[in-house]
Write a sequence for this structure.
């Protein structure tokens, strides 16, 4: 009996060893096996996209994957257009496609109409992989430009039944008469039956204004007689909005930009049918406390450019190439100038923004001198290093406002870019006056450059990139 028992145990041991060997050989999660594969020479296949000709009914069957009646087929190859690189977002949307040399779409870069037609043809070739029904109808030209290395770029806005798809912009790139590269963010063709809102835009604005009043100070619209600082309290636009870039969260919504007071800018998204606030965030580029080197505030002499009108001098610099004398009127509306103003330490309720003036061209207000000088230095940097003519790239006036306080009139340890101008607090008793820091001026001005180029939202990952680019 004991002998039989020992034979039985030996059989079990041999059987277990075979199973272990089998598992070790075939286990796809084996760290040892992965290590061998990692060190081995691998042939990486070229990524391609293929428009597969199959019956729609079979793709919509329970065995296939159906996305809003647009089948998603994993890209593998392409019949008419070969790609060297294809990349996808985490949500499965195509984010970049680069054609192999000679396999793009030819275009006549001398004709804007031809460029747009070629761009649409390129999008049509990849629209199935994009999960787009009709690229011709769903992407409208926004801008076409040629850069310093003679490449042409076509920016296109996604629309659905002529309603803007918020956050849907793509750019196509051409060189040597061939469109060869696509990149951008967009959404699958929306599954919205009716784009006529039940909620009027003005009602949506009131909903947003009622909500913002519980968050911050809402005051009357201020007018200072300076055209570049004029603003509206609420501006609304009908859009199709995807909250948090969730491809399944599409809603017809009112996008409302609020200016509850002179310093803040908020973005609201209100459901155009249910009146629900879908999303909101503060888009004022407020960077918080920073370490500033206020050299001119410490008494260092700077050469600044001013402008005389009558018997007074104004802190207006018209010496830069962007200045447009024909369109300017002084002192309130210079075009293409560097303009420095003073908030006079007034609070939001009684905010007053005035010109910085002198009767003899002597300037004792050091914060204004610093902001004015730093604005000119930063302009020169963008022009000489990047070939960019001012914040908006088109010679727009650069405005700085010094001696800004918080809503209670307290000394502010902060600086802001509000979408129109840079505002500087005086340190809040913690830092030196922020207008003295060249790095602060450059940071705030770069927020404006980001706004006028990439248009990054000031929230989540794009907000972090916005801040990183400004740094």
């Amino acid at each position: 009996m004991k002998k039989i028992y020992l034979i039985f145990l030996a059989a079990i041991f041999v059987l277990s060893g075979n199973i272990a060997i089998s598992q070790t050989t075939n286990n796809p999660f084996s760290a040892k096996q992965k290590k061998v594969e990692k060190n081995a020479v691998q042939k990486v296949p070229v990524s391609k996209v293929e428009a597969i000709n199959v019956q729609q009914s079979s793709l919509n069957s329970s065995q296939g994957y159906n996305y809003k009646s647009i089948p998603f087929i994993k890209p593998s190859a392409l019949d008419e257009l070969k790609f060297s690189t294809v990349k996808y977002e985490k949500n499965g949307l195509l984010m970049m496609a680069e054609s192999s040399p000679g396999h793009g779409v030819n275009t006549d870069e001398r004709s804007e109409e031809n460029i747009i037609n070629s761009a649409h043809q390129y999008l049509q070739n990849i629209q199935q992989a994009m999960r787009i029904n009709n690229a011709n109808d769903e992407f409208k030209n926004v801008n076409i430009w040629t850069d310093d290395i003679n490449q042409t770029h076509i920016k296109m806005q996604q629309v659905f039944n002529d309603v803007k798809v918020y956050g849907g912009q793509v750019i196509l790139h051409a060189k040597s008469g061939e469109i060869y590269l696509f990149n951008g963010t967009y959404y699958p063709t929306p599954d919205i039956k009716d784009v006529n809102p039940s909620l009027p835009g003005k009602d949506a604005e009131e909903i947003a204004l009622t909500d913002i009043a519980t968050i911050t100070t809402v005051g009357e619209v201020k007018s200072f007689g300076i055209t570049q600082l004029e603003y509206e309290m609420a501006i609304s636009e009908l859009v199709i909005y995807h909250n948090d870039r969730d491809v399944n969260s599409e809603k017809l919504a009112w996008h409302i930009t609020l200016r509850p007071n002179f310093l803040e800018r908020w973005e609201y998204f209100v459901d155009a049918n249910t009146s629900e606030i879908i999303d909101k965030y503060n888009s004022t580029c407020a960077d918080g406390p920073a370490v500033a080197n206020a050299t001119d505030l410490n008494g260092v002499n700077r050469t600044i450019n001013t402008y005389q009108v009558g018997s007074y001098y104004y802190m207006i610099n018209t010496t830069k190439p962007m200045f447009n004398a024909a369109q300017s009127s002084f002192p309130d509306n210079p075009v293409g100038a560097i303009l420095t103003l003073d908030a006079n330490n007034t609070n939001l309720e009684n905010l007053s923004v005035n010109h910085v003036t002198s009767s003899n061209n002597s300037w004792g207000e050091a914060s204004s001198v610093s902001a004015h000088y730093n604005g000119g230095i930063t302009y020169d940097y963008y022009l000489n290093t990047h070939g960019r003519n001012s914040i908006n790239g088109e010679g727009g006036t650069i405005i700085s406002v010094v001696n800004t306080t918080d809503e209670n009139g307290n000394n502010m340890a902060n600086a802001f870019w509000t979408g129109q101008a840079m505002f500087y607090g005086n340190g809040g008793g913690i830092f030196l006056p922020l207008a003295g820091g060249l790095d602060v001026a450059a940071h705030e001005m770069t927020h404006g450059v980001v706004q006028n180029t990439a248009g990054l939202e000031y929230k989540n990952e794009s907000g972090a990139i916005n801040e990183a680019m400004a740094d």
Observations:
- DSSP finds nine helices and 23 strands in the chain.
